[in-house]
Amino acid sequence: MTGWDVSPSGVEFVTSLVQDAMDDVAKDVKAYGTDVVSAAASAGTISGVYCGEAPTGPIGVALALFTEKTAGDVVFLGARAAKSVNGAREATAYYLAGDEEMAARAQGKALTAPKIDLPGQGKGDVGK
Prior knowledge:
Elements: H1 8-42, H2 58-96, H3 100-111
Helix pairs in contact: 1-2, 2-3
């Protein structure tokens, strides 16, 4: 840590850019969810005549499986970025306060992977 030369304004500038990018990604993820639902509904089926709501076709099922399998990765991206930004800000605050040991701890903590617990996949789920 003794070799650090931190520019607090530089850290704030870069982390604010990352925060803006995270906000854009969050909007894109929300739109992605809406678009996948729309695509699945519009994909149609290969079934014959039906009464009531149309059954889900193979494309809709494939889209649902893809979304389910990639949900953890998408959530991880946001959590990783948020943890990095918060860690950089926390380490900088400790650095400015002259507490290099706490700055190093904050930096190390920010480098660890975030823990993601998606609904339906948590510790309470038996057999998963």
